[in-house]
């Protein structure tokens, strides 16, 4: 095992057989220590923070895994107004956040012009900040407008790079090709692009994961977000089991070794599946955390899966708590804008 970990550390790539072994590796000390070393070369012991603003839980899509899917009639829907969003950003700014991530379901209520005016105003109020959008699949022209309005980054997980698997997670109206095309368009427009996938989603095989890694090698994203699949009781996948935290941590380490420059969050899903998930993600090679800046009264409604954390160190107000947690494992939470070091 040590040989293949060294090979991945030195070459940043590995054959399928080696990757398959690492996905299942149980003695992870060496894997994680190499991943930490790799991350330290580019980022030292810095952990970047991003303020997550969940702008709307309305969604036109019907992804089988997702709690805010269109057909979930049990959910109370909300959407933030422009003023709400600007207030969240102002509050985040005074707490020390320098990146705001606006994430939401695919909510057709917001026109492109409205998204642009929100982005534009955040950038005008806080020129030293980055704005990241994560609002799903849009025409290239819309992405262009957001970029011109000042958006810097875009997160759009590909979810799975296996076409058969994609069709088991999504209704027929959605396609992997469209998802990929969006990612290529975002790259072409000059965004810093984030992609990623769920670990342990229903019907996922290890071969699917190899395809995910190969697709990311092609895309060369700036950010890579992964987290365990967690079931939601009002979705078709309510009886499916959750993804494995260990497999997720192994994949974070593999991603760090393949993409030394990448910004890799220790995600909310990881923190939700285990009380120590957040720290373990960092110790496996992640270097970003994304606490929640949404108004408190809507936080529980952005319910992608059951058990999603929205308090404690998930909440942006608890930045000090997060900082001391990171300090206790040898890391320093920093407030700089944290662009990718490619
Ligand atoms: N509408 C946006 C944002 C989606 S929510 C978009 O399409 O990009 C952000 C991410 O949460 C998704 O990309 C998905 O990977 C993850 N997610 C959704 N449901 C989940 C679940 N049940 N378990 C774990 N992660 C989930």
Description:
The chain has 342 residues and is an alpha/beta fold. The chain is 42% helix and 13% strand. The chain is built from 14 helices and nine strands. It has a six-stranded parallel sheet with strand order 2-3-4-5-6-7. Strands 8-1-9 form a three-stranded parallel sheet. Helix 6 (140-148) links the parallel strand 4 (130-134) and strand 5 (153-155). Helix 1 runs parallel beside helix 3 (29-43), helix 3 (29-43) packs across helix 10 (245-258) and helix 4 (82-95) packs parallel to helix 5 (112-125). The longest helix has 15 residues, at 29-43. The protein is globular, with a radius of gyration of 19 Å. The two termini are 28 Å apart. The model has no long low-confidence stretch (mean pLDDT 96). The chain binds S-adenosyl-L-homocysteine. S-adenosyl-L-homocysteine binds at residues 65-66, 103, 105-106, 134, 136, 156-157, 159, 198, 227, 229-230, 232, 269, 304-305. S-adenosyl-L-homocysteine binds next to loops.
């Amino acid at each position: 095992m040590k040989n293949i970990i060294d090979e991945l550390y030195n070459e940043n790539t590995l054959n399928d057989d080696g990757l398959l072994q690492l996905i299942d590796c149980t003695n992870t000390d060496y894997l994680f220590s190499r991943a930490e070393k790799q991350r330290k070369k580019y980022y030292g012991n810095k952990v970047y923070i991003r303020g997550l603003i969940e702008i709307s839980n309305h969604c036109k899509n019907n992804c089988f895994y997702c709690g805010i899917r269109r057909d979930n009639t049990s959910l109370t829907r909300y959407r933030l107004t422009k003023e709400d969003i600007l207030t969240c950003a102002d509050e985040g700014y005074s707490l020390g956040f320098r990146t705001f991530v606006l994430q939401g379901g695919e909510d057709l209520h917001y026109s492109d012009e409205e998204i642009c005016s929100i982005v534009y105003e955040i950038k005008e109020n806080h020129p030293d900040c980055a704005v990241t959008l994560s609002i799903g699949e849009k025409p290239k022209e819309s992405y262009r407008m957001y970029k011109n309005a000042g958006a810097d980054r875009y997160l759009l997980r590909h979810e799975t790079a296996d076409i058969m698997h994609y069709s088991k997670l999504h209704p027929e109206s959605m396609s992997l090709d469209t998802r990929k095309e969006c990612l290529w368009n975002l790259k072409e427009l000059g965004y810093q692009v984030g992609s990623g996938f769920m670990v342990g989603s229903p019907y996922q095989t290890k071969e699917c994961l190899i395809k995910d890694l190969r697709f990311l090698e092609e895309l060369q994203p700036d950010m890579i977000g992964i987290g365990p699949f967690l079931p939601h009781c009002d979705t078709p996948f309510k009886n499916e089991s959750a993804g494995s935290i260990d497999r997720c941590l192994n994949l974070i380490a593999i991603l760090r070794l393949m993409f030394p420059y990448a910004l890799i969050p220790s995600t909310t899903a990881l923190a939700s599946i285990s009380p120590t998930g957040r720290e373990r993600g960092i110790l496996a090679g992640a270097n970003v955390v994304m606490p929640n800046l949404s108004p408190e009264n809507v936080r529980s409604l952005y319910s992608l899966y059951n058990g999603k954390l929205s308090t404690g160190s998930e909440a942006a107000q608890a930045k000090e708590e997060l900082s001391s947690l990171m300090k206790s494992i040898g890391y320093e939470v920093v407030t700089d804008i944290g662009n990718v070091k490619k």
